[in-house]
Amino acid sequence: MTESSRQGRHGAHSTAEGDVRAPLAGADLSTQLPDLDVEAVAQPSGTPVITFDHVSKIYPAQPGKPALDDISVQVYAGEFVFLVGHSGSGKSTFIRMLIREIKPSSGHIYIADEDLSTMRNWRVPYLRRNIGCVFQDFKLLPNKTVFENVAFALEVIGKSRHVIKTQVPEVLRLVGLQDKLNKRPDQLSGGEQQRVSIARAIVNRPPLLICDEPTGNLDPQTSRGIMDLLERINRTGTTVLVATHDREMVDNMRRRVIALDKGRLTRDQDRGVYGFDV
Amino acid sequence: MSSLLYFFTESLKGFARNLSTALGSIITIFLSLLIIGIFLLGGLVVSNVLESVESKVSITAYVADDASQTDIDALQQFVRGLNGVASVTFTTKDQALEKFKNSMTSNPEIVNQLDGQNPLPASIDVELAEAQEVESIASAIESNETFRKICDNQADPADSLKYGQKTVERLFALTNYIRYIGIALIALLIFIAFVFINNTIRLSILARRKEIAIMRLVGASNNFIRGPFLMEGTLHAIIGAALAIVCLQLLRMFAIPRVQTTLQWLPIDVSNGNYLMIYAVLIVAGLVIGLLGSALAMRRYLKV
Q: Are A94 and A51 contacting, i.e. CB atoms less than 8 angstroms apart?
């Protein structure tokens, strides 16, 4: 997937939300934006966003037991994918390899045509700017307000104050926290905190959003709210990958399911269900 | 430029947010630098004292009462020609008595007992430029023909030559030891300070590793993450150094003059230039330690 079409999804993101504010970075972006291909969102095709090509990962501590064993899978732009499996099945390894916290022992991982196994270290921050990450434990900074937490993601990649001032309230409105800008994380409920962390992950409008157990700490009703939010984000064109234990969620949503078991890919199914016995 | 500004404002904010750890590292830097400063100052004072003690080493050659003026002049001429001699003066019998009276003002009865007589010999006083050369100069005088002729105690010329032979040897051994020990002590202190400061900075960064992890997660480049921390380290170092300098300056203005008035024989006054040098050393040492310590402590958190 090329740079311009990736950013095209950003543009789609703001327009689909009925967004009247200026899109990110103004004119230079809009000139290279192709029109959103609605069909592509509904029926994924074209170049994959994520490609795993015979990827194995063997941790030095357990040489006989690969964490991931010869995984080949592709995720296309605009897809909503669940990554399911028991603890220790390799979900976290899968995700940590996507943001290149670790490298595969063999095989290749491509994100938008870029090979992560040969990527230079100094390029890694730029990769991560194109991937939003949401975690079970939120990873919010406790001594910053909601606004500052989200703004932080833009500050550290060098965005101007003007961009921050327009984009942060916008994304907080998207996640429904426009009234809590000045609250601190410990003054929010778990669901609200997770919304803040989702806002932080997408404020930069990355084409890919990765969530590692986003509802792991939340009650079912709140979880449903978070999933609705993720689905709305997906509808704007962002590719969403959710690693989860949450059977009910997976079964209800009927999206593509990739199942891992002991490091092996056991199932890859469109409109799938959780499928494991409890 | 804008990111420099960002680093600066961010380091100020970080300062306010992490007040306790910031204060901790500032106080550590301050105390370490203060101790180094005091020891440097002490080292300068000791070296001043040593120099003045060494410069007091002089040779006195006692001359017989009946020595002729020509012989005395010839001897003075000879001594002046020797290597390492700073100045040569002649003290007459009357001057010697005067000096003696002056040094005995607290016991005037001793002077009174002299009863108008003058038992003191005239002498040639030799001040030395190279205090450590005293042995060779003394032996050169002793072997001089003229000196042998006019010295106070004809039977044993060496007896008319006073320079505290054994004492001088011991004194030099002692002063050299003190110098080496002082240098070693200061080096050790600098090392200890470095370890302390490095540890404090490590702790303050450890306390913020979550923040660093999030910065990396959202794609901040390493330089961008490092910037505010290095700036903060620098800020802490400068504040710590400034506090240490203020303390030393107070010490200089209030404590040292007092000590000087009680210990007048000790030349503990250190020149302005030397103070400035110590201050410069403290600032540079603080900066180096602050920057280097932060950079080293950060390294492990920045591995991709």
A: no
Q: B221 — contact with chain A (CB < 8 Å)?
A: yes
Q: In A232-253, which positions are buried (b, 16+ CB within 10 angstroms) versus exposed (e)? A: ebbbbbbbbbbbbbbeebbeeb
Nearest CA to B291 out of B197, B215, B209, B221 is that of B197
Number of helices (H) and strands (E), helices first, in chain A? 10, 10
Distance CA B159, CA B148 (A): 11
Residue A246 and residue A223 in contact, taking contact as beta carbons nearer than 8 Å: yes
Q: SS3 for B85? A: strand
Q: Please check whether residue A244 is in contact with residue A132, taking contact to mean a CB–CB distance below 8 angstroms.
A: no
Token pair for A75 = 């995720």
Is the minimum CB–CB distance between A163 and chain B shorter than 8 Å? Answer: no
A-contacting residues of B 285-304, CB under 8 Å? 304
Question: Encoding tokens for residue B132?
Answer: 């450590």
Dig out the tokens for B147 from the structure.
Answer: 């000196």
Nearest Cα residue to A132 out of A229, A15, A248: A229
Burial class (CB in 10 A: 0-12, 13-18, 19+), B242: middle
pLDDT tens for B238-274 read 999 999 999 988 988 888 788 778 877 767 677 788 8
The amino acid at residue B133 is E
User: pLDDT at position B183, please?
Assistant: 85
Token pair for B178: 């003190």
pLDDT at B304: 56
Q: How far is CA B130 from CA A108, B2, B85, in A?
A: 77, 60, 7
- Per the CB < 8 Å rule, is B216 touching A126? no
DSSP state of B235: H
More confident residue, B119 or B238: B238
Q: Identify the residue among A145, A156, A196, A202 best suited for mutation to test binding to B, counting B beta carbons within 10 A and taking the highest.
A: A156
Chain B: nearest CA to A196, how far in angstroms?
A: 14
Q: What is the pLDDT of residue A241?
A: 95
**What are the residue ranges in chain A where pLDDT is below 70?**
1-46, 277-278
Q: What is the average pLDDT across B59-67?
A: 81
* Token reading at A1: 């997937």
Residues in A closer than 8 angstroms to B299, CB to CB, are: none
Judged by average pLDDT, the poorest of B57-71, B150-164, B175-189 is B150-164
Nearest residue to A49 (alpha-carbon basis) of A84, A2, A14: A2
Give the three-state DSSP class for B288. helix
**Considering chain B, what percentage of its residues have pLDDT values greater than 70?**
96
Task: Return the pLDDT at A27.
Answer: 41
* A38 in contact with chain B, both atoms CB, cutoff 8 A: no
Q: For residue A14, give the amino acid letter.
A: S
Contact A157 B304 (CB under 8 A): no
Closest CA to B18 of B201, B182, B191: B201
pLDDT at A243: 93
Alpha carbon dihedral B128, B130, B135, B139, in 10-degree steps, equals -60
- Chain B interface includes A157 (CB < 8 A): yes
pLDDT of residue B21: 77
